[in-house]
Design a protein that fits this description.
The protein is α+β, with helices and mostly antiparallel strands and 148 residues long. Helices cover 37% and strands 34% of the residues.
C-alpha cells in the first residue's frame, strides 16, 4: 500500500527547468517564423516587380510592333515617347515621370516604382529598357524584318 501513497510533488528546480526549456524552444520557433516571413515578403516584392515589368514590356512591345514611327521628347521632369502607326493613324503616348517613377500610356498609369524607362530607335531595331527599384534591368529588342 505504501507505493500508492507516495505524495512527493514536483520540485521548484523541475518547474524551472521545464520553463527554461519551453522558453528556449519558443525563442527558436519565433526566430524561424520571423525569418521565414521576412524572406517571404522580399520574394513577394521581387515577384510583383517582375510581373509588373513583364507586363510593361509586353504592352510596349505590342504597341511598338504596330507602330511605324517613334518620336521622343525629353524634359527634366519626364520623357515622352509617341508611337505612331501611319496605316491607321493610331497613336500611343508613353510618358515616364522621373519624380514619381511612373509610366503612363495614353494618360493611364500602367506602372509605378520604375527607376528608369527608355525606348530607343536604332533604325534596324528598337530597344526597350526598364530598371526596377531593386536595380534589376530588363530589356526587350525588336528587330525589323526586311522585305518588299
Amino acid at each position: 500500500m505504501s507505493k500508492f501513497h507516495n505524495e512527493r510533488g514536483v520540485t521548484l528546480l523541475e518547474v524551472l527547468a521545464v520553463t527554461i526549456i519551453a522558453t528556449i524552444v519558443s525563442i527558436v520557433l519565433m526566430s524561424i517564423l520571423t525569418n521565414s516571413k521576412t524572406t517571404n515578403d522580399k520574394q513577394m516584392i521581387s515577384t510583383i516587380q517582375l510581373s509588373d515589368t513583364t507586363y510593361i514590356l509586353k504592352v510596349v512591345t505590342k504597341d511598338t510592333r504596330k507602330s511605324t514611327k517613334i518620336l521622343m521628347k525629353a524634359l527634366d521632369e519626364y520623357t515622352e515617347y509617341i508611337l505612331i502607326n501611319n496605316q491607321n493613324n493610331q497613336k500611343y503616348t508613353y510618358v515616364y515621370h522621373r519624380k514619381n517613377q511612373t509610366i503612363t500610356r495614353n494618360d493611364e498609369m500602367i506602372a509605378a516604382n520604375v527607376l528608369d524607362f527608355s525606348i530607343e530607335d536604332k533604325r534596324s531595331h528598337i530597344i526597350i529598357d526598364i530598371t526596377t527599384p531593386n536595380s534589376k534591368s530588363f530589356s526587350s529588342t525588336i528587330y525589323f524584318r526586311g522585305g518588299s
